[in-house]
Amino acid sequence: MSADVTSSSDSLEQEAARVLPGLLSNAYARYSNFTVAAAVIDDEGRAHYGVNVENAAYPSGTCAEQTAIGAMITAGGSRRIAKVLIAAGTDAVVQPCGACRQRIAEFAGETCEIVSVRGGAPAERVAFWTLLPEAFGPRDLD
After folding, report:
1. Phi, psi (5° rounding) for residue 52?
2. Is 110 exposed, middle or buried (0-12, 13-18, 19+ CB in 10 A)?
């Protein structure tokens, strides 16, 4: 799911944070009961949403961040991530798992931020590249 927004980056972040708690009920977390919703904001000012989808064969599940990145790619246009917002059904501050950090690194801009959402509002923010310094990425294959 993607949305075009013509407002400022800050208001887009606020809107995405407000939307995420409502998406948690769409997650399929039958095994862990740990629901997650994510929004990827691209550098063209569009928000792309996703939720986690578990599977009985655990490695086959999909994280919310991965689903949101897929929505961004499917929508066309920018492939550069400016921000990733993450909300958990527990309302705890959460960060991307290791695999999602690598997925985000594939598309993250130099100033990409991870924003934890609590209660429908941004709660904590961290520069993405501090979470995955010296990442392996596209530049290593060029």
Report:
1. -75, 145
2. exposed
Handedness of CA 14, 35, 91, 103 (dihedral sign): negative
The residue with tokens 């578990």 is 54
Residue linked to tokens 């991530």: 81
Closest CA to 37 of 76, 48, 8: 48
0.85 surpassed by pTM:
yes
Find tokens 């590249």 and name the residue: 129
pLDDT tens column, 34-75: 999 999 999 999 999 999 999 999 889 999 999 999 999 999
**Cα 48–chain centre separation:** 8
Rounded CA-CA distance 55/63 in Å is 11
Query: Between β-strands 108-118 and 81-88, what pairing exists: parallel, antiparallel or unpaired?
Result: parallel
CA dihedral 114, 8, 41, 36 (to 10 degrees): 60
What length is written for the chain?
A: 142
Active site residue 65: yes
Which is the catalytic residue, given 65, 106, 113, 124? 65
CA dist., res. 114 & res. 128, Å (int):
6
